[in-house]
Design the sequence.
């Protein structure tokens, strides 16, 4: 793998503005980060007037804060599911932070790199709370609403077939239709990625009357994506993600850096500071802008939000989850 | 199995069954009015009609359709919830599921409560659905309480769950003759004293948790009687929460006095530690396990009891792998306890129930093929004379060979026409007797020449079988309750002395239960043991939906 210093050296030789390597320098020269996000997914990226917010949006801000010293120096580019990877490969965006599942075919067959996993998602099921169910194994005989044209129904069919459970599917083209049919009682349950189901649930008339079953039947690791011809850039993005996770582990958040723990943030970020020639307080700027991973999660997806998602797999490894970032030293 | 029906309803509004799937808000907001006998009769007719004709009933009702139709329809059963006091009682019971070692979040407590508020609404079909929802939730809880919560079979094959299920109709009819929900559950829940004692202790530990648990004793030098150390004061405070640590003597709370030593010994005993009053790392680790974890262990032990057969047998043998202990019950009373050695973590002794069918004195030990290839073959190749002297021989068909007559370097896995066995004798791995309950796991109880292991506090050393500390005592008792005439201790001794292989069939097979319990209650005292096989950890994860293999 190419080291960041080598990449910096190359850009000195080639000059700035090279479309090939040097996304870092491009962003610095431009003074703005162009970040691809979804066209609107509650909790992940949503627009209200000019203002963007959400879990994916906050990761864009964190990278901008690290590179430019300003979490607001981001131009958001809403991208459809079909267009997202083409737009990234064509250089239209510097970074894709758009609930994209890291899969072998995407990683290996396309000119893209996944920087890491920012959200461990999985296919789940929404059911009326009155049913008193907690597990997918309770769904024997269920009528299942599903949006067609995704792998969702194939996944579910395969799962129930393997379990020897009899179920039936009702397909809809749009989320809104599937949601309406579920709400009307046509189906016993509505399946989709759990993060998306949480968003759907928040749009029901009585969200509290519905629960997402706790187990998932597929792996959907979502992560930020870069082009694969710029090793330095993917490393920077990856280590900003690790820094957010490590900062949570150290309980180093917005309040801590605003208080008396600024020096800790400087120390924690020092290896990256040296490698990318960042400002000494880059991590403090990131944490002041977005907070650590846990703060980003709670603000956009957590129990105080309409999505009310539990940390689950996205808890720190020290708390029973899968978030395990290599140390910053 | 596994038939999948795909229905495509693209862009079509489906109006059917709308009123059935969910209870609409106006229904719930309806003003209260007393239900007359006539109302109730009409609701009953609606229930019967819905069960007979409505394909769009809510899933929990559809899943229990047959039993509900039988109860309300052909059986003509009374309404269980509407017009009775039971609805509120069930809501209260589900809300207090912690007391049953269950999780209130697993049941639709709040949702049922909201329905209960709506119980007097005018919509007759709506009321019928309410009654059915309550019955479905009741059956769910009754099942979880009596036979355990659903677990995917994949969790761990070593759990070897003998799946049991409830008879829903029995539960519905039982409730119908019992006005009181709690009264019904009192008679329905597992009646075993093991379960009931755990339930009582769970109550105590939950109270401790509410008061904030117990302080942690810092690690450090081993604390011994006579020492004067600030950590002794903390130890005293810690024990006061669970073991009633005595008031400090004149020397003060920081002095480790005799009375405190007595309390420490009792703590060590109930945690399976060396009982020496020396508070070293092992004791401190046990002291510092948080109360929340102990509560989980109690709940898991209750869950395991739900899996057990309801009738263990008046006479039976119960082995607890995690406690390294065997208990012999006779005529409904515990008569004897004995230390046992169980499988080491990579040779886990499985959990199951069976019946002892026969005893074999002076048994041959037929070496399992895994042990033959992994352990015996290298020894045969390097020192056949030594193995022969240890009593081993080779068998091919009816022919028995001296180990020294074979060139063992010529044989290996895939090319091994022999069985290796060890003749009866002092070195025999099975010792002087084995207790057989033929099973697919090849697990049985037996004697052992390795006596020193019984002195250890943790005793997981075997290849999966269960080794007994006092096998001949047990043989004597098992033959007695097994209805075998003409046996006593002296006959056992003389048969053993003969060195002849002797099989004795029991006239009456004796139930044997191999369990894995990290928590139990002895004379009111909670006992806890280490989770040597990590079964608890997996079970907790599975009950929390975290063990799906993807």
Sequence:
């Amino acid at each position: 793998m190419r080291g960041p210093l080598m990449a910096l050296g190359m850009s000195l030789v080639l000059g700035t503005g090279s479309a090939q390597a040097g996304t870092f320098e491009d962003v610095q020269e431009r003074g703005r980060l162009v970040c691809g996000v979804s066209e609107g997914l509650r909790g992940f990226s949503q627009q209200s007037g000019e203002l963007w917010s959400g879990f994916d949006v906050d990761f864009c801000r964190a990278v901008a804060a690290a590179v430019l010293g300003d979490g607001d120096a981001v131009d958001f580019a809403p991208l459809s599911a079909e267009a997202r990877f083409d737009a990234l490969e064509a250089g239209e965006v510097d970074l894709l932070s758009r609930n994209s599942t890291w899969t072998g075919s995407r990683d290996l067959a396309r000119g893209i790199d996944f920087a890491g996993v920012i959200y461990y998602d999985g296919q789940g099921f929404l059911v009326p709370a009155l049913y008193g169910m907690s597990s997918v194994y309770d769904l024997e005989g269920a009528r299942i609403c599903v949006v067609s044209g995704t792998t969702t129904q194939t996944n579910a069919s395969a799962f129930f077939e393997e379990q020897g459970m009899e179920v039936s599917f009702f397909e809809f083209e749009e989320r809104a239709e599937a949601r309406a049919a579920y709400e009307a009682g046509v189906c016993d349950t509505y399946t989709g990625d759990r993060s998306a189901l949480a968003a759907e649930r928040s749009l029901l008339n009585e969200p509290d009357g519905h629960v997402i079953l706790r187990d998932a039947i597929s792996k959907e690791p979502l992560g930020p994506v870069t082009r694969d011809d710029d090793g330095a850039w993917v490393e920077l993005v990856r280590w900003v993600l690790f820094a957010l996770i490590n900062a949570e582990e150290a309980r180093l958040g917005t309040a801590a850096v605003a208080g008396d723990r600024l020096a800790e943030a400087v120390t924690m970020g020092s290896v990256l500071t040296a490698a990318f020639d960042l400002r000494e307080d880059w991590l403090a700027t990131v944490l002041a802008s977005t907070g650590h991973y846990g703060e980003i999660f709670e603000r956009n997806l957590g129990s105080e939000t309409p999505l009310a998602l539990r940390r689950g797999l996205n808890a720190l490894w020290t708390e029973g989850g899968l978030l395990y970032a290599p140390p910053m030293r | 199995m596994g038939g999948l029906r795909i229905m495509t309803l693209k862009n079509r509004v489906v109006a059917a069954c709308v009123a059935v799937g969910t209870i609409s808000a106006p229904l719930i907001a309806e003003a209260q009015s007393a239900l007359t006998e006539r109302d109730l009769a009409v609701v009953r007719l609606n229930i019967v009609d819905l069960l007979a004709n409505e394909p769009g009933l809510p899933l929990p009702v559809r899943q229990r359709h047959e039993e509900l139709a039988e109860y309300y329809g052909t059986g003509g059963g009374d309404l269980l919830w509407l017009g009775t006091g039971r609805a509120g009682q069930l809501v209260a019971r589900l809300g207090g599921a912690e007391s049953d070692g269950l999780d209130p979040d697993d049941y639709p407590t709040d949702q049922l409560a909201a329905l209960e508020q709506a119980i007097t609404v005018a919509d007759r079909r709506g009321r019928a659905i309410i009654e059915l929802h309550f019955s479905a939730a009741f059956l769910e809880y009754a099942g979880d309480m009596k036979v355990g919560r659903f677990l995917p079979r994949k969790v761990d094959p070593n759990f070897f769950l003998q799946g049991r299920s409830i008879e829903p109709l029995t539960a519905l009819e039982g409730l119908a003759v019992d006005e009181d929900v709690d009264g019904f559950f009192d008679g329905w829940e597992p009646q075993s004293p093991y379960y009931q004692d755990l339930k009582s202790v769970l109550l105590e530990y939950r109270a401790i948790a509410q008061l904030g648990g117990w302080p942690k004793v810092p690690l450090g030098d081993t604390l011994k009687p006579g020492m004067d150390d600030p950590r002794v004061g903390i130890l005293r405070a810690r024990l006061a929460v669970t073991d009633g640590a005595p008031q400090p003597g004149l020397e003060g709370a920081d002095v480790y006095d005799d009375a405190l030593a007595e309390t420490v010994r009792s703590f060590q005993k109930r945690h399976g530690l060396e009982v020496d009053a020396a508070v070293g790392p092992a004791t401190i680790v046990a002291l510092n396990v948080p109360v929340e974890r102990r509560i989980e262990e109690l709940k898991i032990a209750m869950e395991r009891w739900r899996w057990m057969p309801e009738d263990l047998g008046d006479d039976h043998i119960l082995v607890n792998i995690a406690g390294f202990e065997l208990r012999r019950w006779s005529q409904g009373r515990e008569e004897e306890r004995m230390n046992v050695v169980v499988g080491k973590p990579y040779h886990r002794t499985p959990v199951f129930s069976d019946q002892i069918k026969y005893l074999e004195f002076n048994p041959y030990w037929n070496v399992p093929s895994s042990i033959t290839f992994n352990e015996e073959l290298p020894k045969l190749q390097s020192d056949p004379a030594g193995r022969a002297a240890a009593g081993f021989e080779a068998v091919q068909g009816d022919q028995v060979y001296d180990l020294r007559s074979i060139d063992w370097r010529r044989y290996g896995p895939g090319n091994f026409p022999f069985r290796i066995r060890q003749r009866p004798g002092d070195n025999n791995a099975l010792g002087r007797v084995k207790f057989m309950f033929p099973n697919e796991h090849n697990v049985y109880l037996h004697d052992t020449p390795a006596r020193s292991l019984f002195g250890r506090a943790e005793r997981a050393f075997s290849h999966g079988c269960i080794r007994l500390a006092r096998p001949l005592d047990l043989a004597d008792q098992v033959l007695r309750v097994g209805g075998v005439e003409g046996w006593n201790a002296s006959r056992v001794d003389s048969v053993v002395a003969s060195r002849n292989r002797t099989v004795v069939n029991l006239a009456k097979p004796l139930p044997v239960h191999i369990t894995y319990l990290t928590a139990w209650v002895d004379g009111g005292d909670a006992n806890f043991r280490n989770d040597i096989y990590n079964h608890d950890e997996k079970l907790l994860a599975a009950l929390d939906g975290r063990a799906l293999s993807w």
User: Anything to note?
Assistant: Residues 231-249 of chain A form the longest helix (19 residues). Chain A touches chain B through 51 residues (CB under 8 Å).
